[in-house]
Amino acid sequence: MNTPLSSLNLWQKLKREWLIYHLGDASFRFMFDPAPANEWVALDCETTGLNTRTDEIISIGAVRIVGNRIMTSERLELLVRPERGISPESVRVHRLRERDVAQGLPIDEAMKQLMRFIGSRPLVGYFLQFDVSMLNRAIWPILGQGLPQPKIEVSSLYYDYKYKQLDRIRHLDNDDIDLRFDTMMRDLDLPQREAHDALNDAVMAALAFIKLRQLRIA
Q1: Interval 64-77: pLDDT, tens
Q2: Does pTM surpass 0.85?
Q3: I need a labelling partner for 104 at 20 to 30 A (CA). Which of 17, 62, 126, 188 fits?
Q4: Alpha-carbon distance 137 to 51, whole Å?
């Protein structure tokens, strides 16, 4: 008789095989391989806005993490050419103008480069759900599905750390924890780069991830 754990493992195996079978481009099957031990990819996207259904990706930054090291020599920086224009409001956030991305990659080529860079490594990021939603919309026409890798949200790791830290002192209300990116970086005593640059944000998310893993182990 199967134990709950063995049943879960069987379900995960069947799901994996089902996803591979329905993979739109079999050349990306490697994303379902076992991930390299103690390796992750931190990533971030800059977009024309915050609507995951209509806005577009205009830049992607990603960096590999191996153990407690950020492999800045193994980074990915891509500019992506949008099909529509970039609003003045979004330019004020990320400082990317239409002429800056005019020679960027078509979105499908950018997604292929990103998927090859990620491989089967788990993904790390801040507000990662937004980035993954934007990426999956662009990846779906290629794969017929979204990114299969596990996703790790650094703000969730930070929340857990702060909750345990502060709850020892007093009763803690959920609203007492400030999850803003700059607050988190300052509290963790980590260097900050200029924000709203895809690679900078990916590197800062990687720094926070490594620090929070160390604090959890300590």
Answers
A1: 999 999 999 989 99
A2: yes
A3: 126
A4: 12
